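Supplementary Methods. Inverse-folding protocol.

Structures were first reduced to a discrete structure-token string of length 160. This string, shown here, constituted the complete conditioning input.
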């Protein structure tokens, strides 16, 4: 086959190159949290960890005022209750071990330092991995998903 080039060119080459670049983009980086998960936590043990670690000094739990009795509160950031979007497992873990990663608007200025960092103390050396898993299980159990209710637009609904 004299004169026949084995070089890949044309629209097929461009498509193959595009597909390969997409596959490369799907590969998680070594710093990615992809594949990370904690063991399943115990809700009751998580409630005990919440109290032992003093989380109630800054956080209230919807429907659980007894968790804050006889506690000098520094601020009042609400956790749990009805919500349109439940925080994922990873979001809750990140909020606990790296609270400055994403600061809730509910925290306001009282929840941040002048430098914009979270005022939440670092608990990474104060709790075990089991306590972290239990705490996340406790927090997830406090949220109630409230589905979005669309606004009915009269022109799109039949009249009675």
């Amino acid at each position: 086959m004299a004169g026949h080039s084995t070089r890949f060119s044309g629209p097929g080459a461009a498509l193959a190159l595009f597909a390969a670049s997409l596959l490369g983009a799907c590969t998680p980086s070594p710093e990615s949290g992809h594949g990370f998960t904690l063991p399943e936590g115990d809700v009751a043990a998580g409630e005990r960890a919440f109290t032992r670690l003093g989380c109630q000094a800054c956080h209230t739990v919807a429907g659980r005022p007894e968790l804050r009795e006889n506690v000098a509160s520094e601020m009042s950031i609400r956790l749990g209750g009805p919500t349109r979007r439940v925080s994922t497992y990873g979001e809750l873990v990140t909020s606990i071990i790296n609270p400055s990663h994403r600061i809730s608007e509910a925290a306001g200025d009282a929840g941040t330092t002048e430098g914009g960092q979270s005022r939440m103390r670092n608990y990474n050396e104060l709790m075990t991995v089991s306590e972290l898993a239990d705490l996340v299980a406790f927090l997830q159990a406090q949220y109630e998903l409230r589905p979005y209710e669309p606004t009915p637009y009269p022109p799109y609904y039949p009249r009675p």
